[in-house]
C-alpha cells in the first residue's frame, strides 16, 4: 500500500471553524463521526442511496458518505443534526415525528429530519407531493413513510402557527461545545 | 482497501491535464457520487490519485456567441435551476432533476455524469437531444466533440490521456422537450430505459426534432430516422406519422437483458416513452 499523505483542511462545522488533517479517501461522514464525535449522521448504505448520512453543506442537503473530506474548503459550511439541536424549526419537526409515531428503529431519522428541515426552510407550506419529493433520497425500512409524511405536514402547520422563521438561509447554528 | 495515495488540487486546467496525463492511476473527482461509491467498494484498485476539479471555475452557466455554455462542474441542481437552462431546454431540466435524489443532485455534476459514460446516465439523452457539443481541454489544447460522437461504449469515451471535459455548448434556441425514464421506482433509481425529446421551430409550421434513447444500447443513441420523418412533417405531426415514428424509435433501440430489466420490456417501453414525450410536448 502506498503511503498516504494527510491533507490539512479547514471549514465551518456547526458554526465553528475547525481544522483537521485527513487521509485522501476519508469521507465527510467519517470525519464528523470519528474526529468530531458527531454521530447523528449514520452510514446506512455508504452508496448515496439511503440518506441516513444527510448533512447540510452550504445550506444544501448532501450525502456525507460521498463527500471527500479533503475537498472541503475554508468557505464551506457544514451543519450536522447536532448543530440544529436548539433550532426552533428542528425542534418542531422532532416533536411532530414523536407525536405521529414516525420513528421505529430510528436509524434513518437523523437523515430524514435533515431533509424535513431543508424542505420546511425552503417551502414552509409544502404540498403532499413536495413532502414526498424532498424525502425521496431518504429510505426508511420500518414505518413505510405514511407517518413520516404526516409528521412533516404537522410540523409545517405547527411552525406556521407559532410564527417560526422560514425561508431563506438557515440561521447560525449552535456552536460546538467540544 | 485503500489504494488511494493522494488528492491533487490543481488551480488551473493545464495543471489538472498535466497531472492526469502524468499519472495513469489518477481520476478526476467533482461530486464523487459515483466515483467514491466504486472506490469504497474496491472496484477501482488501479486508482492511486484523485484530482479534485472543483477549484477550476467550471461551475458557470453563460450565454455567449449564440451558445449556452454550461461548465462541466455544474451540479444537477444548478443546471436544473438556472434561468438560461429553464427558459430554453426543458428536456435538460427534467433530466437533471431525475438524477438520484436531492442529496445526490446537490453534489453530482454534469461533467461527471457524462464523463462516466454510462448508457443510463440521465443527463446524457437530454444533452444529445439538444445538439450539445463537449468542449474538451487537454495537454495539446482545446477541441470540441459533438456529444452524440463522444461515447464509444459503456464507460468509454473519445477522451485522450490527459483530456478532460471543460464545458458543454448548447445552441441558443428555445426548445420544447421532455425527458422520461423508467426505473425500479419513480425517484432515485437507475434508468431501465430513458428517452429525451427536443424540438424547435425550423420554419413556420415545421419543427426540427431530436430523439435520444438511454439504457437501450452500449451508448446513448439518437433515432435519426424518426427525427428525419418528424422534422420533414408539419407540426404537430398527424397520427399516422406518429405511429410510423414510434415504430422507427423502437427499431433504433438495441437493448439487452441485464440485472435491471429485460430486452423485450425495454424495447416496448421505448415506444411508450416516445408517445408520452410527444404528448407532453404537444400539450
UniProtKB/TrEMBL annotation, chain A:
Keyword Cytoplasm among UniProt keywords: no
Gene3D superfamilies given in the database record: 3.10.20.30, [2Fe-2S]-binding domain (1.10.150.120)
Region (Disordered) location: 159-178
Single Gene Ontology MF annotation: metal ion binding
Domain 2Fe-2S ferredoxin-type: 7-84
Amino acid composition bias (Low complexity), ranges on this chain: 159-169
Keywords for this protein: 2Fe-2S, Iron, Iron-sulfur, Metal-binding, Oxidoreductase
InterPro entries: 2Fe-2S-bd, 2Fe-2S-bd_dom_sf, 2Fe-2S_ferredoxin-like_sf, 2Fe-2S_ferredoxin-type, 2Fe2S_fd_BS, Beta-grasp_dom_sf, Diverse_Oxidoreductases
UniProt protein name: Xanthine dehydrogenase iron-sulfur subunit
UniProt source species: Candidatus Ozemobacter sibiricus
UniProtKB/TrEMBL annotation, chain B:
Record-linked Pfam families: CO_deh_flav_C (PF03450), FAD_binding_5 (PF00941)
Top-rank taxon, per record: Bacteria
Keywords of this entry: FAD, Flavoprotein, Oxidoreductase
GO molecular function: FAD binding; oxidoreductase activity
Residue ranges constituting the FAD-binding PCMH-type domain according to the UniProt record: 1-175
Identification of the protein by name: Xanthine dehydrogenase, FAD binding subunit
Natural source organism: Candidatus Ozemobacter sibiricus
Lineage: Bacteria, Candidatus Ozemobacteria, Candidatus Ozemobacterales, Candidatus Ozemobacteraceae, Candidatus Ozemobacter
